[in-house]
Automatic annotation (TrEMBL):
Residues 1-23 form the signal peptide. SUPFAM superfamilies: Immunoglobulin (SSF48726). The keyword Membrane applies. This is Uncharacterized protein LOC128369698. It is found in: Membrane. One of its GO terms (cellular component) is membrane. Coiled coil: none annotated. Keywords: Glycoprotein, Membrane, Signal.
Length: 509
């Protein structure tokens, strides 16, 4: 098995790895293991000469005199074994401090090196976890995004499957971690493999791709799918807007904006009671007494407006530190909550950039790959156009970024839209797809089921490439996978083209 082969390789590496042609051999050893170094040369020790194993040119580990008495130098006693026969050195239970240069040499009138090693002690690598972030399934294809992560590093990658094969977008993905190990995600025999390795150790995690992509699969995703899919989410672009959930109302506000909170209930203050707006049940932002005097906490003076009439609170220029539970209550013999809000302050989302990675076009189809990216996140997506319509492979793509915002790429009315949003703001970039995929509108023979998974009718454009005599187009379809078992008798494409009354499209060659 490959793992066995790897382990064997590790053992070889740890002991005698000889690499390069230089006289210095680099050896990697896992912390806690043994280091074995050979001389591999006849050693003749003349009178008054001495054989030495040295570390970093400064410390001796072993000294051997002509009369074959070997002496292990003090700090190494008990950790070093030395063979008087072949002069090999065994250093047990190595630690990071043992990294450095090891030299076997003979010292006489001059010092002559016999063997030189550069020893690098490495920790075993941390475990990896492979998690599935999103799966989108259509009848034709399945797209899934995974994240391979270690404690301090991660790679995301997208895989696409059609009927026959699965492919990794942009091929194997790899990354060097800060600790010098390498993280890789690749596809091998129908499995997604995530490996974390350095020269001495390997951890891996894998998952079979098909069970995730089968139409009935309901994978449990690592990250919830993007917002805005019909949930009762209200975007609060200016003042805080509200999401009702049980008794507590969640309010998202953009940093720097004003937060307005209402009570929406009659408040009656009898003697010895008071009304308060509190944050996190500790900070009394506003206090109102039965005689209508108010007290604003010093921490919020100048930033708060309070209405004695309706008891609403306006908190100006909110900052992240204003996040928390904001409660209106009446205190008396016991505290009686009136209204509760959970306030979440969000930064506006960063700008997005939609860029085209590749276009491949023929006369009857065009494939386009785009990347929708923000400063710290990206999604790639592939679009396929035939002469009639454009489709997004795997449908809309979305991802939740590390900051909790949602990044989406989708097709709408012939525009590719890259949208970055959170509850309080959004940015978008878009590109019209047709100018990028200029097709000669030459219908070609094809299957009759080309309407499957077609996006909702594209909007009419000046260039009538998508419209025109339906009776003719209904016979034609994409040139793509021709699976039809019937023979479709198709007139010469040029003659069909000639029948369509439409403006001359620009010639593309
Ligand atoms: C990744 O790990 C698997 C199993 O642990 C192993 O079989 C495979 O060879 C590794 N791949 C690479 C490229 O190291
Ligand atoms: C040298 O001797 C040691 C201990 O006897 C042995 O483990 C090692 O394999 C030998 N090395 C060579 C190159 O013969
Ligand atoms: C030995 O030398 C290496 C560089 O060659 C250095 O990184 C390491 O700290 C040195 N170790 C000791 C114990 O001096
Ligand atoms: C996919 O496979 C099914 C059955 O295996 C077949 O009916 C269908 O035509 C195939 N579709 C494509 C696009 O290859
Ligand atoms: C990782 O480091 C190795 C050696 O320094 C280098 O060859 C390789 O290109 C790096 N890989 C990546 C993905 O940066
Ligand atoms: C990696 O190191 C860990 C911890 O020492 C060990 O349990 C594991 O077997 C090692 N894996 C390989 C492939 O050497
Ligand atoms: C991958 O990691 C997950 C979670 O840590 C674990 O449940 C699963 O068994 C691992 N799979 C393999 C093949 O190591
Ligand atoms: C306090 O102000 C409210 C609203 O203006 C008013 O209805 C109420 O009578 C006032 N109470 C006192 C004690 O002045
Ligand atoms: C309220 O508590 C949350 C976390 O529980 C904290 O992030 C926030 O800063 C607190 N707000 C205030 C105003 O103390
Ligand atoms: C677009 O991709 C499809 C499926 O991978 C392929 O059949 C078609 O030939 C491609 N078209 C171009 C112009 O590359
Ligand atoms: C593909 O598109 C390019 C640029 O729009 C155009 O120059 C080229 O002729 C097209 N190729 C075909 C086969 O339509
Ligand atoms: C076409 O575009 C117009 C204006 O942009 C829009 O009002 C209309 O709903 C669109 N029609 C379709 C079918 O998308």
């Amino acid at each position: 098995m490959a793992l066995a082969a790897f382990l064997l390789a590790v053992c070889v590496l740890s002991s005698w790895e000889t690499q390069g042609s230089s006289a210095v051999t680099t050896v990697f050893v896992q912390k806690g293991k043994d280091l074995h170094l050979d001389v591999n040369k006849p050693v003749v020790i003349a009178e008054f000469h001495e054989f030495n194993w040295r570390f970093n040119a400064s410390h001796s580990l072993v000294r051997l005199s002509p009369v074959n008495t070997a002496r292990i130098v003090d700090p190494y006693k008990g950790r070093v074994e030395f063979s008087v026969q072949n002069h090999s050195l065994l250093l047990k239970y190595v630690q990071h401090s043992d990294s450095g240069d090891y030299t076997a040499l003979i010292t006489g009138d001059k010092t002559e090196p016999l063997a030189e090693y550069k020893v690098i002690i490495q920790d075993p690598v941390s475990p990896v976890q492979l998690s599935v972030d999103s799966v989108s399934n259509s009848r034709e294809s399945c797209t899934l995004t995974v994240t391979c992560s270690t404690e301090d590093s991660l790679i995301s990658s997208t895989f696409r499957c059609d009927n026959q094969t699965c492919n990794q977008e942009r091929g194997e993905q790899s990354k060097n971690t800060t600790s010098g190990s390498s993280l890789r995600v690749y596809l091998f025999k129908g499995s997604i493999i995530c490996n974390h390795s350095n020269q001495v150790n390997l951890t891996s995690n894998m998952t079979e791709i098909r069970p995730l992509c089968s139409p009935t699969a309901v994978p449990s995703l690592g990250i919830p799918i993007g917002i805005g899919t019909g949930a009762a989410v209200v975007f609060g672009l200016f003042l805080g807007s509200l999401i009702w959930s049980s008794d507590v109302t969640t309010v998202f506000v953009q940093k720097g904006k004003n937060l307005h909170l209402d009570v929406n209930k009659p408040v009656v203050l009898v003697k010895y009671t008071e009304f308060r707006w509190t944050i996190n049940n500790t900070l009394n932002v506003v206090r109102l007494f039965p005689d209508n005097t108010t007290m604003i906490s010093s921490s919020h003076k100048g930033r708060v407006e309070f209405s004695v009439q309706n008891h609403s609170l306006l908190l100006k220029n909110v900052q992240h530190s204003d996040s928390g539970d904001c409660t209106a209550l009446i205190t008396g013999e016991k505290n009686q909550p009136v209204t509760e809000y959970k306030v979440i302050i969000q930064d506006p989302v960063s700008p997005v950039n939609l860029s085209v990675n590749s276009v491949s076009n023929s006369t009857e189809s065009c494939n386009l790959t785009v990347t929708c990216s923000t400063e710290d996140s990206l999604i790639s997506s592939t679009f396929r156009c035939d002469t009639q319509t454009c489709n997004q492979e795997g449908g809309e793509q979305s991802e939740v970024t590390t900051s909790g915002s949602s990044l989406r790429v989708y097709l709408s009315n012939d525009f590719i839209i890259c949208n970055h949003s959170n509850q309080v703001s959004r940015t978008r970039d878009m590109k019209e797809i047709r100018p990028l995929c200029p097709l000669n509108d030459v219908p070609d023979k094809g299957t009759t089921d080309f309407n499957l998974n077609q996006t909702p009718n594209q909007n009419a454009t000046e260039d009538a490439s998508c419209l025109s005599p339906n009776t003719i187009y209904s016979l034609s379809g994409p040139a793509a996978p021709v699976q039809s078992t019937e023979t479709v008798i198709t007139p010469n494409p040029e003659s069909i083209y000639a029948q369509i009354t439409k403006p001359q499209s620009p010639t593309t060659n």
